[in-house]
Amino acid sequence: MIACDRCPRLRRYCQEIAATKRRAFRDWTYWGRPVPGFGDPRARLWIVGLAPAAHGANRTGRMFTGDSSGDWLYRALHDAGFAAHPTSESLDDGQQLRDVYISAVARCAPPDNKPTPNEIARCAPYLAQEHAALSHLRVILPLGSIAFDAVLRLVVASGAVVPRPRVRFAHLARYDLLSGNSPHTVLASYHPSRQNTQTGRLTRPMFDAVFRGARELLAEGP
C-alpha cells in the first residue's frame, strides 16, 4: 500500500504538500505517501474515515494523527477506553489502541479533502484486505456519508446480508448485518471535521455517544 501509485493526481498532491510543508511544520519530514491502517489486529471495532489530511496523516504517517479531526477522535477513544493516550501526534508518541483499528476510504490526502469516485474505487481493495484480516470484527464505525457508503459496498461484496429498506446515512444510523455465522453492526457517525465540529453539527456529547454505543454493542458479543 505504501508504494501504491494508482492515483497520479493524489500522489502529485501529497508529494507537493510534503515538499512545500506548512510553516508550523517546517522542521518535519513529511510522510508524503499512502497511509496504512493503525491499531489492534485483533480489534472488534473498525473505524473507517475518509482520507488523510494534507498536514495531518500525510505529514505524520498515521491515520487521524496531527490534525483537529484526530484530536477529537483520539480523545473520544481514550475516554471510552480504546486508546492509551488522549492525543496522537507522531509515529513515536507511544500511542496504542486496544480493540480498535482505524482505516480510511482513501489512503492519500486529496485536494480539498475530496477524493474522486474513481480514486475511492482504486483504494477499495486495501479496505477489503483489512476487512478480511480483522477476524474478530464486530462493529464497523464509518465516519461520514462517503465512508458509510463505502462500508456498505464492502460488506455487501463480502456476502453480508443488508436489511431492507436500506438505512440512509445519519448520525448513529445502524445496520445489523449477518455475514456467514458472524454478526456485524455498522454504526455511523458524522465525521469530526472542522466543518462539523465548528458549526455544532457534531458536538462532544454526540461523538461520545457513538463510542458508548460501540461499547454496548461489543458487550453483547464475544
Give the key terms:
single chain; 222 residues; alpha/beta; Uracil-DNA Glycosylase, subunit E; 6-stranded mixed sheet; 7 helices; 36% helix; globular
3D structure, described in words:
The chain is an alpha/beta fold. Helix content is 36%, strand content 13%. It has seven helices and six strands, in the order αββααβαβαββαα. It has helices spanning 8-20, 57-60, 68-79, 117-133, 145-157, 194-197, 204-220; strands at residues 38-39, 45-49, 100-104, 139-142, 174-179, 182-187. Strands 1-3-2-4-6-5 form a six-stranded mixed sheet. α3 (68-79) crosses α7. It is globular. The mean pLDDT is 94.
Order of helices and strands: HEEHHEHEHEEHH
Unreliable stretches: none
Q: What fraction of the residues are assigned to beta strands by DSSP?
A: 5-15%
What's the number of helices?
Answer: 7
Helix content: 25-40%
Q: What do the pLDDT scores average to?
A: 94
Report Rg: 17 Å
In the CATH hierarchy, what is the class? Answer: Alpha Beta
> Got a strand count?
6
* Structural category: alpha/beta
Our count of domains comes out at: 1
Q: In CATH terms, what is the architecture?
A: 3-Layer(aba) Sandwich
Main β-sheet, spatial strand arrangement: 1-3-2-4-6-5
Shape: globular
Biggest sheet descriptor: 6 strands, mixed
Quick recap of the structure?
The chain has helices spanning 8-20, 57-60, 68-79, 117-133, 145-157, 194-197, 204-220; strands spanning 38-39, 45-49, 100-104, 139-142, 174-179, 182-187.
List the SSEs and their pairings.
Layout: H1 8-20, E1 38-39, E2 45-49, H2 57-60, H3 68-79, E3 100-104, H4 117-133, E4 139-142, H5 145-157, E5 174-179, E6 182-187, H6 194-197, H7 204-220
Parallel strand pairs: 2-3, 2-4, 4-6
Antiparallel strand pairs: 1-3, 5-6
Helix pairs in contact: 3-7
